[in-house]
């Protein structure tokens, strides 16, 4: 059984312009599989469909075609089983900002069936593991730096021992030191836990450093998903950036078309 | 493989109850963090209720009649405030979490939506009862209403029973911020206002046009107001005549509320409306 099995997955959003309604495909016939314990990175520009893919796998969106399975459970129909197995860290460290790190984690943990007697022990432990200072545990989230908030977001995801961890640009906006700390922690999770990791990012170095296989999602289409060396060999290039250029005819920094800008709003 | 094993029924129920306690616990944290704002809101509610109750004091009637009218106004004001809290908190199920950006984490958690909503409803009732009691005591102390026969136990029980229906209706309005992130919450307040207008909040239902009196029959607030006024003024016990409509409306409104919320959630997931910027 695959940890993740996505087949011909499609998600469209309706765009209104005056009286006209058009459908924009955020995910356009994506298929791939992930083995248990594997780390896969999906690269793509803003609006390429990375976050939509993560939302479809975490049951936050309903697909418009195809299928997505997590450990054999259909993400559309068997949402409860999927939710037990999945957790997510997104680019925005979303928390109740007046509540402390410990209170936010306790709230999240209850939804995963953890009693106060368990979280009294596990929350300080997990915060220590992500390098969060103990003396700031009871500070309101609004008083923490972006890097510290992201550490709490990682702690929230790990607290529930997810079998599938979805990382949606977890280091975007972090300073270089915080970025390295988060990446080191992702490595540690892989080494110590039985977690499968789907990392969506637009940081090519991060993808290369952390993932077993790398894919490029471009305008909703998955161009390939292979080990980094195979990608370089396939396109006869030295870097993932060059592979992106060869595969799409554009660079990562290229100006976006109007359609790309619109896709960015939804995907 | 442990990852694909389904938990047993007992384990699932335990899991749901822990989830429900988590919703209540989170709201307690938030009340603690916003306590001074809540105190200010409480003062505003007291002042607002006093403006209504003082109308009775200005009427050219006997002292006994003034006392009765002031009590009727006070009960109306307390129910209005209580209903306001229920609607506000249940509507915040979506609105507040959208504002904080936590909604996707909550909606992808393995807790059923009914339990999530009942958790919000349970906290709303507990918090609303405390506020209603403070409001009642403060206004009585301020204006000197004399209610020696009041049956407070029956009044609290009636309010708690009516809350089931209020939560069901609140669930229907809670979905509005999913459909319209900008204006959905305000529409919830409109529902609260409309319900109280037809329910005789500061007057008898009989003064309403006939068509409004028909609508009053399906409003739980009508029965709650009638019963609680009788219990506070005359010391009446809980009456079956008021209880059975509340039970029937509750039995209809809660499943209907869950259905409406589920439909709204499905719409939001189909159109990408859960996302904060959506």
Key structural traits:
heterodimer; A: alpha/beta; Rossmann fold; B: about 280 residues; mainly alpha
Task: State mean pLDDT of chain A (0 to 100 scale).
Answer: 88
Q: What is the molecular shape of chain A?
A: globular
Mean pLDDT of chain B: 89
Strand-and-helix sequence of chain B, N→C?
Answer: HHHHHHHHHHH
**Number of strand elements of chain A:** 10
Number of domains of chain A: 1
- What is the number of beta strands of chain B? 0
Topology of chain A as a string of helices (H) and strands (E): EEEHEEHEHHHEHEHEEHHH
Written description of the protein model:
The model of chain A has no long low-confidence stretch (mean pLDDT 88). The longest helix of chain A is centred in the last third of the chain and has 17 residues, at 176-192. In chain A, helix 3 packs across helix 4 (116-129). Chain A is built from 10 helices and 10 strands. With 267 residues, chain A is of the alpha/beta class. Chain B contains 11 helices and no strands. Classes of the chains: A alpha/beta (267), B mainly alpha (278). The interface between A and B is large, with 45 and 40 residues.
Could you give a short description of this structure?
Chain A is of the alpha/beta class and 267 residues long. Chain A has helices spanning 50-57, 79-85, 101-111, 116-129, 146-159, 176-192, 204-210, 228-235, 240-248, 258-266, and strands at 4-17, 20-34, 39-43, 65-70, 73-74, 86-89, 164-168, 196-201, 213-218, 221-226. Chain A has one domain: P-loop containing nucleotide triphosphate hydrolases (Rossmann fold).
Please specify the SSE layout and strand pairing:
The complex is a heterodimer of chains A (267) and B (278).
Chain A: E1 4-17, E2 20-34, E3 39-43, H1 50-57, E4 65-70, E5 73-74, H2 79-85, E6 86-89, H3 101-111, H4 116-129, H5 146-159, E7 164-168, H6 176-192, E8 196-201, H7 204-210, E9 213-218, E10 221-226, H8 228-235, H9 240-248, H10 258-266
Chain B: H1 9-33, H2 35-57, H3 63-100, H4 103-107, H5 113-143, H6 152-174, H7 176-179, H8 184-198, H9 210-217, H10 220-234, H11 240-271
């Amino acid at each position: 059984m695959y940890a993740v099995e996505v087949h011909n997955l499609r998600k469209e959003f309706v765009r209104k312009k005056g009286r006209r309604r058009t459908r924009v495909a955020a995910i356009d016939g994506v298929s791939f599989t992930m083995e248990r314990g594997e780390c896969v990175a999906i690269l793509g520009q803003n609006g390429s469909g990375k976050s939509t893919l993560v939302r479809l796998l975490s049951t936050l969106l309903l697909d418009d075609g195809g299928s997505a399975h997590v450990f054999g459970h259909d993400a559309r129909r068997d949402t409860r089983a999927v939710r037990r197995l999945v957790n997510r860290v997104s680019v925005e460290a979303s928390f109740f900002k007046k509540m402390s790190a410990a209170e936010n984690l306790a709230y999240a943990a209850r939804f995963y069936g953890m009693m106060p007697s368990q979280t009294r022990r596990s929350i300080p432990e997990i915060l220590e593991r992500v390098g969060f200072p103990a003396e700031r545990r009871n500070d309101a989230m609004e008083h923490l730096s972006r890097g510290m908030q992201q550490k709490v977001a990682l702690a929230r995801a790990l607290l529930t021992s997810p079998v599938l961890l979805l990382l949606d640009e977890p280091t975007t906006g972090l300073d270089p030191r915080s970025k390295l700390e988060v990446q080191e922690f992702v490595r540690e999770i892989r080494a110590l836990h039985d977690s499968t990791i789907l990392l969506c990012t637009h940081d090519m170095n991060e993808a290369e450093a952390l993932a077993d296989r790398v894919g490029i999602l471009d305008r909703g289409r998955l161009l390939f998903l292979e080990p980094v060396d195979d990608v370089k060999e396939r396109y006869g290039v030295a870097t993932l950036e060059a592979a992106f250029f060869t595969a799409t005819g554009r660079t990562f920094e290229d100006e976006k078309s109007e359609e790309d800008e619109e896709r960015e709003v939804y995907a | 493989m442990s990852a694909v094993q389904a938990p047993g029924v007992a384990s699932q129920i335990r899991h749901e109850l822990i989830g429900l306690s988590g919703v209540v616990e989170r709201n307690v944290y938030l009340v603690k963090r916003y306590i001074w704002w809540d105190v200010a809101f409480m003062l505003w509610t007291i002042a607002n209720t006093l403006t209504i109750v003082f109308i009775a004091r200005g009427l050219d009637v006997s002292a006994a009649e003034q006392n009765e009218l002031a009590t009727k106004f006070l009960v109306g004001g307390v129910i209005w405030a209580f209903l306001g809290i229920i609607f506000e908190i249940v509507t915040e199920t979506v609105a507040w979490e959208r504002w904080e950006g936590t909604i996707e984490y909550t909606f992808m958690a393995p807790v059923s939506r009914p339990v999530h909503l009942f958790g919000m409803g349970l906290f709303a009732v507990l918090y609303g009862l405390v506020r209603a009691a403070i409001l009642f005591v403060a206004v009585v102390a301020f204006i000197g209403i004399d209610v020696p026969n009041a049956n407070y136990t029956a009044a609290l029980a009636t309010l708690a029973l009516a809350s089931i229906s209020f939560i069901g209706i609140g669930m229907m309005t809670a979905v509005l911020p999913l459909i319209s992130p900008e204006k959905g919450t305000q529409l919830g307040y409109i529902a609260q206002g409309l319900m109280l207008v037809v329910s005789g909040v500061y007057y008898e239902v009989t003064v309403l046009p006939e068509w409004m009196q028909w609508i009053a029959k399906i409003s739980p607030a009508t029965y709650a107001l009638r019963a609680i006024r009788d219990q506070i003024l005359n010391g009446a016990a809980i009456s079956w005549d008021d209880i059975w409509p509340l039970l029937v409306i509750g039995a209809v409104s809660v499943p209907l509320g869950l259905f409406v919320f589920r439909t709204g959630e499905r719409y939001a997931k189909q159109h990408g409306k859960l996302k904060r910027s959506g």
